[in-house]
Amino acid sequence: MRTQVGIVGAGPAGLFLSLLLHRAGIESIIIESRSRRDVEETVRAGVLEHWVVELMQELGLGERMLREGHFHSGITLQWNRERHHVDIQGLTGGKGVTVYPQHEVLKDLIAARLAQGGEILFGVSGAAFRDVDTDHPSIAFSRDGAPEVIACDYVVGADGFHGPGRQAIPASLRTEYQKIYPFGWLGILTNAKLSWPELIYTNQQDGFALLSTRSPEVQRMYIQCDPADDIANWSDARIWDQLQIRLGTDDGWTLTEGPIFQKGIIPLRSFVCEPMQYGRLFLAGDSAHIVPPTGAKGLNLAVADVLVLSRAMEAQFRHNRRDLLDRYSAACLRRVWKAERFSWYMTTMLHKNLHETDFEQRIHFADLDLVRTSEASARSLAENYVGLPFD
Ligand code: DHB
After folding, report:
1. Closest CA to 381 of 100, 50, 102, 74
2. Mind listing the pLDDT tens digit for each residue in 232-253?
3. Residues 6 or more apart from 230 whose CB is under 8 A from it?
4. Is residue 268 lining ligand 1, measured as CB closer than 6 Å?
5. Which pLDDT does position 43 carry in this prediction?
6. Count of domains in the chain?
7. Is 280 helix (H, G, I), strand (E, B) or coil?
């Protein structure tokens, strides 16, 4: 097999990239270790930055998102049993909050790419990048037990944190920056009615909780927990108890409970690999950087990477200009570090960290109160929430 751009990974980075390359007249093939069903059903975060919503529409993928997504003018922050509305739309000149889950985005992207005749090979194993420091890189893998190779002009590791992409950059040439948080998130899906018209991020009593939504009948909620905890320790009653405590107010509001049909625990990590490029290999999305989920930047950052990469590839293939490809890593990392900062800020401000001093805990509540009282602080949060401009 041969293609211009070989992509490992059919997540947001790989799929958006193949669609953007197709629009620019550049061929690509995606390989993916999971089945199509696994990719389409894994539950992840749900907030799209404003420009991602526009990009979906530009690519002709907006129809179901506009019909089934939820548009909020702001978010609610809560502490001391009080709620504060952050008017994201008003603070950003009209950009609101779109809740449309990642796996729904992926379904739309996969359907669109296949409808174009694009190749996505699901369920392959042993993906490996070869000769990435030469002019003829390739991707080796096995399909149904038989070895195959895709010869490429360029290769992309859109293969997540545990994929082979990052490891294909020699360890001596990369620097990894990491922070592990001493808490995780327990996420649930429940059949319950909407309890509040926008997302609530709260830091109260035992720490963080997030109230989000999936549809008028299905709600998504998270609570801070020990990352090493066993989900078996969390009965539905205990989960509701904690949600009631952390989301509780004194104004008569009630949280609507319902049957929980999905639950799981994820750890929280910040991670950046520099550089994001080596020879003809480019990293995009989680293979190069991880953010903790507070603020839902993961998917949005992955799409930002491949927007930069697709423009650089277009300059190379159409105009024989290498400079944008050479600047890919530096251009992405400027934006990545700002999203890392924002995700870290939201995470530290909104969680109870038993390893911190009481002094630091107080500072986090001062940060929250600053968003309530300072328009500059609220605007900074809002600008980051809807997505920073590309410079
Ligand atoms: C969701 C997840 C997030 O991390 C977030 O900040 C907001 C919403 C969600 O899954 O709905």
Report:
1. 74
2. 999 999 999 999 999 999 999 9
3. none
4. no
5. 86
6. 1
7. coil
Mean pLDDT for all residues in the chain: 97
- Nearest residue (by CA) to ligand 1, atom 11, is 46
Binding site membership of 76 for ligand 1 (Cβ less than 6 Å) = no
Q: How far is the CA of 344 from the centre of ligand 1 (A)?
A: 15
Which one of the listed residues 100, 154, 181, 201 is annotated catalytic? 201
* Beta strands at 75-79 and 28-31: parallel, antiparallel or unpaired: unpaired
- Confidence (pTM): 0.97
Domain contains 117: yes
Per-residue model confidence as pLDDT tens digits over 145-203: 999 999 999 999 999 999 999 999 999 999 999 999 999 999 999 999 999 999 999 99
Angle at 188 between CA 346 and CA 272, to 5 degrees: 40
Domain-located, residue 114: yes
Residues 360-381: tens digit of each pLDDT:
999 999 999 999 999 999 999 9
In a domain, 345, yes or no: yes
- Answer yes or no: is 309 within a domain: yes
For 145, the domain range is: 2-70+98-178+269-352
Distance of CA 198 from the midpoint of ligand 1 (Å) = 11
Annotated catalytic, 147? no
Q: Is 179 noted as a catalytic residue in this protein? A: no
Nearest 5 degrees, angle CA 164-CA 292-CA 217? 105
Q: Is 297 a catalytic residue?
A: yes
51 C-alpha to ligand 1 centroid (Å): 17
* Cβ–ligand 1 contact at 293 (below 6 Å): yes
What pLDDT is attached to residue 335?
A: 97
CATH code of 26's domain? 3.50.50.60
Task: Give me ligand 1 centre to Cα 133, in Å.
Answer: 38
225-232: long-range contacts at Cβ-Cβ below 8 A with a sequence spacing of 24 or more? 225/183, 225/184, 225/185, 225/186, 225/265, 226/183, 226/184, 227/181, 227/182, 227/183, 227/184, 227/265, 227/266, 227/267, 227/268, 228/184, 229/184, 229/186, 229/265, 231/186, 231/263, 231/264, 231/265
